[in-house]
């Protein structure tokens, strides 16, 4: 394999990884491993592919092989920690992250991952302390700021959420992640249409991401004209307010013996009730799946 071909393959793999299209990169990586089974970079990249397939055991095995052939142990242990974290094996994840920190105690991204692990394990104070330490060490790291943002989303702190969304946008080069963060920023401000458009653009860039697809589906329903009456009802307080208003008006009109307006109000309420029961079903039948 010539140097030019290797460089081209490396660029293509990096591009696919950047977009989260790991399966598209897999054949190129497999070909590299056929050419050189001890290719440490290719072994690690294949570990990432296996993790995307949720074969975490195989991902760890390939990562260990990559480290045996000279791949960065800091990155390797960090990755292994992530594989354990994904399946809730927090003790094993902690051991892997601590192994990475033993090699480089001031690695901000590993410290941030350790902090987020502590958040998931329920140790909020330790999590915040570690995340703050990571920010001091690497204030412009995309990953550090992203994990701090996740912390404040978990804590439902809207002020901090907006602050760290701005921080991530200033540091990130990942277009899909940036669009997702901008969508969250609009959502926090109640700008539903703008949030939906950002999720749509992110999905077009990475149509394999099922999480973005699910969010897009949710925002489709929030912005679709079919749900306009429901959005109005939500703004005035929800179905309970509509029911109370109807009952008060019905009793008042009955007391005043205004039966024709009473019948009209009753028909309107029945139509609203039918609409509220069938709108979601109609949306699923006729609309869902369109971008």
Automatic annotation (TrEMBL):
Coiled coil: none annotated. The keyword Magnesium does not apply. SMART domains: TPR. The keyword Cytoplasm does not apply. Keywords: Membrane, Repeat, TPR repeat, Transmembrane, Transmembrane helix. The chain crosses the membrane at residues 236-253, 259-283. TPR repeats lie at residues 74-107, 176-209. This is Tetratricopeptide repeat protein. It comes from Neobacillus citreus.
């Amino acid at each position: 394999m010539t140097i030019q071909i290797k460089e081209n393959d490396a660029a293509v793999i990096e591009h696919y990884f950047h977009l989260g299209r790991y399966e598209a990169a897999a054949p190129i990586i497999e070909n590299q491993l056929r050419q050189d089974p001890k290719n440490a970079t290719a072994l690690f990249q294949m570990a990432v592919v296996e993790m995307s397939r949720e074969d975490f055991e195989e991902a760890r095995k390939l990562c260990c092989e990559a480290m045996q052939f000279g791949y960065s142990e800091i990155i390797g242990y960090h990755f292994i920690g992530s594989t354990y974290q994904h399946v809730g094996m927090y003790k094993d994840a902690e051991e892997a992250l601590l192994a990475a920190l033993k090699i480089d105690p001031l690695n901000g991204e590993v410290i941030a991952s350790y902090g987020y692990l502590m958040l998931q394990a329920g140790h909020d104070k330790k999590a915040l302390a570690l995340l703050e330490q990571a920010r001091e060490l690497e204030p412009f790291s995309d990953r550090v700021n992203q994990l701090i943002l996740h912390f404040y989303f978990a804590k439902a702190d809207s002020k901090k959420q907006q602050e760290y969304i701005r921080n991530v946008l200033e540091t990130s080069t990942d277009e899909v992640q940036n669009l997702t963060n901008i969508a969250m920023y609009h959502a926090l401000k109640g700008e539903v249409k703008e949030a939906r458009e950002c999720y749509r653009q992110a999905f077009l860039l990475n149509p394999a991401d099922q999480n973005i697809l699910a969010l897009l589906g949710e925002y489709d329903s929030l912005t679709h004209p079919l749900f306009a009456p429901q959005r109005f009802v939500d703004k005035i307080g929800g179905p309970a307010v509509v029911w109370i208003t109807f009952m008060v008006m019905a009793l008042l009109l009955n007391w005043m013996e205004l039966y024709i307006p009473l019948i009209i109000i009753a028909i309107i309420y029945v139509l609203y009730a039918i609409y509220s029961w069938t709108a979601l079903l109609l949306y699923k039948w006729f609309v869902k799946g369109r971008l």
